[in-house]
Specification:
There is one protein chain. With 124 residues, the protein is mainly beta. It contains no helices and 11 strands.
Length: 124
């Protein structure tokens, strides 16, 4: 599965952005799509994930209630709606995919497909 992320940009604190990740290739019922981010000098961290089949969603505590992950199955696309953005949300955002067990969805190394990152910059 190949992934292509888009939608990053520059936004003021308190604003919103929506990222998209288009997947090409077949996905299975256990497929999970995740979003990770990496700020300069920091490790890549989990942001959110969604199970392709049932649509269950998972979030990092730092983004819960502000970010929403969703999917459009016919279009093979996952979205990350980011609201109430803060300066600390500034990072390169990556979408990822893989056939994962539940306990692995927070772990970047469990994902087998990665899209190119898209920069999100939040000005304070």
């Amino acid at each position: 599965v190949q992934l292509q992320a888009s939608g990053g940009g520059l936004v003021q604190a308190g604003g919103s952005l929506r990222l998209s990740c288009a997947a090409s290739g077949r996905t299975s019922s256990s497929y999970t799509m995740g979003w990770f981010r990496q700020a300069p000098g920091k490790e890549r961290e989990f942001v959110a994930a969604i199970r392709w089949s049932g649509g269950m969603t998972y979030y990092a505590d730092s983004v819960k209630s502000r970010f929403i992950v969703s999917r459009d199955k016919p279009k093979n696309t996952v979205f990350l709606q980011m609201n109430s953005l803060k300066a600390e949300d500034t990072a390169v955002y990556y979408c990822a995919g893989g056939n994962l067990i539940l306990s692995s969805i927070w772990t970047s190394t469990a994902y087998t497909s990665w899209g190119e990152g898209t920069q999100v910059t939040v000005s304070s």
